[in-house]
Amino acid sequence: MLGSVELNDYMLKNPLTAKADLTVYEAAQRILTNKVSGLVVIDDRRAMLGMLSELDCLRALLASAYNDEAFSTAVVGDLMSTDVEMQSPSDDIIDVATSMLDHKHRRRPVVVDGLLVGQVTCRQILSVVTTGLKEQKHRITR
Predict the structure, then answer these.
(1) 120 has which bridge partners?
(2) Given 13, 16, 83, 104, which residue has the most CB atoms within 10 angstroms?
(3) Rounded to whole angstroms, what are the CA distances from 119 to 27, 31, 66, 69, 86?
């Protein structure tokens, strides 16, 4: 079904990122503009710091609105998840997909020596699998 099983062959090599000092409002705008479900949070060296989801942003912005606070003061570093499962480029894509399903994760950063080199998302894996199934069906019907 798949030509390769290494994550390196399917990962997004330039994922959308944010710095920890970016405001939540700016992060939410970046998420909306790029139609993604979250951002990888990195430092200036591209060291992996955490992940920020659209739900993290929504939670913070709604709380600010409810409490009549200025939401521009909240920053990504205060809200990001830091307990993030990371992958290696050589990881097996099927194992990664299974783990993502088991843990209900929509995306995983791919790192080498702590530095971000890519990201894999459910949408990417779904695309790989459906393409593989289509090719397999085409071979069978010939």
Answers:
(1) 108
(2) 16
(3) 18, 15, 34, 34, 9
Q: How far apart are the first and last CA of the chain?
A: 16
Tokens encoding 81: 């998840």
Structure tokens at 96: 């990664």
Binned at pLDDT 50, 70 and 90, residue 131 comes out as: confident
Task: List the structure tokens of 118.
Answer: 């890519």
| Nearest Cα residue to 109 out of 3, 11, 23 | 11
pLDDT, tens only, 2-11: 566 889 988 9
What is this structure's pTM? Answer: 0.84
pLDDT of residue 116: 98
Q: Which two structure tokens, joined as six digits, stand for 24?
A: 């939540």
pLDDT of residue 137: 59
DSSP string, 67-105: TT--GGG-BHHHHSB-----B-TTSBHHHHHHHHHHHT-
CATH placement of domain 7-141: 3.10.580.10
